[in-house]
């Protein structure tokens, strides 16, 4: 929001999109970015990076527009997907971190052999996939019920 309600804010991204479109009207990437920017009002960091790369090839584009776009990109947060990493067992630590959960699961399955939740968690532990905090608390609740 600008301080002056009657004064319209300068939209550098829209200007860059228009300049790229004027330079190459057949570029599908720029057209798709324009449509998305009009629909949502924003672009993702990766899309802005692609726009910067395309805009740097436009010969008559003012350098301060590219600098502003680069500043916008640098300001945006970096998003990473959290991968299910398998914990590495070192030579010093030969205990299985899932041993505690496997014993709880075994006691549940001994009493209820067809317990689908316990069977699922047993498979996850055998594949050495990380258990969520929710799954760990569920196991402890089941253990209390035994």
Q: Which overall shape is indicated by the principal axes computed on the Cα atoms?
A: rod-shaped
Q: Count of DSSP helices?
A: 7
E-strand count: 0
Oligomer: single chain
Would you identify the regions where 5 or more consecutive residues have pLDDT less than 50? Answer: none
Whole-angstrom Rg: 27 Å
Distance between the termini: 59 Å
Walk me through this protein's architecture.
The protein has 146 residues and is mainly alpha-helical. The chain is 59% helix and 0% strand. It has helices spanning 12-23, 28-40, 45-55, 63-75, 99-111, 116-126, 133-145. The longest helix has 13 residues, at 28-40. The protein is rod-shaped, with a radius of gyration of 27 Å. The protein starts with 11 loop residues before the first helix and ends with a helix. The model has no long low-confidence stretch (mean pLDDT 81).
Describe this structure in a few short sentences.
Helices cover 59% and strands 0% of the residues. The chain has 146 residues and is an all-alpha fold.
Q: Would you spell out the secondary-structure blueprint of this structure?
A:
Elements: H1 12-23, H2 28-40, H3 45-55, H4 63-75, H5 99-111, H6 116-126, H7 133-145
Pick out its properties.
rod-shaped; 7 helices; mainly alpha; 146 residues
